[in-house]
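Hello,

Our lab assistant flagged a job as stuck in the queue for most of the afternoon. It eventually completed. Since we weren't sure the result was trustworthy after the delay, we are filing this so someone can double-check. Below is the sequence as submitted and the structure that was eventually returned. Let us know if re-running is recommended.
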Amino acid sequence: MFRIKSSAHAPAVSLPLFADHIPAGFPSPAADFTEEELDFNELLIRRRCATYCLRVSGDSMQGAGILPGDILVVDRSMYPLDNDIVVASLDGEFTVKRLITSGGQPVLRPENPAYREIIITDDRDFLVFGVVTAVVRTMKRRGG
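-- returned structure --
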C-alpha cells in the first residue's frame, strides 16, 4: 500500500550536554556541570543513509508543533504506521500530514482545523516518501 522513496552525509557536531534538566522558571546552580557531549547527528538521525531534511511552508500542521520555516527530519526507511506524521506525494503534490488508517482506508489529516482531511482512494496517486522523526526550529530574536 505504501511505497517509500534520497540522502545526506553530515559531519559530526558535538556540543556540551548539561546533566541537569532546565526548569522553565528559576535557574539551577548545578547547571555548571556537563554530563557528556551531545552529537546532533546521533540525536536526530537514526539511519543516516535513509534520512533527509525539508523546510516547512504553510500552517496545516501547527497543532502538531510543526510551524512554517521549521526543518523536518525524515526517515525514508521507516514503514509508516497509523498516526505517524509523513511526507507524501498526492497526485504529484508534496505534503506533510498525519497518516491515519480508518477501516483500512488511508487518510491524510492536517493538524489545523482550517484544513480538511484527505481520504486516499484507489484512483489517487499516493506515495509516502518517509516518516517525520524530528522537527528543528530556530528561535527568532525580538528586535534584531
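-- support follow-up --
The delay was a queue issue, not a problem with the job. The result is valid. The helical segments are 40-44. The CA atoms of residues 88 and 95 lie 5 Å apart.
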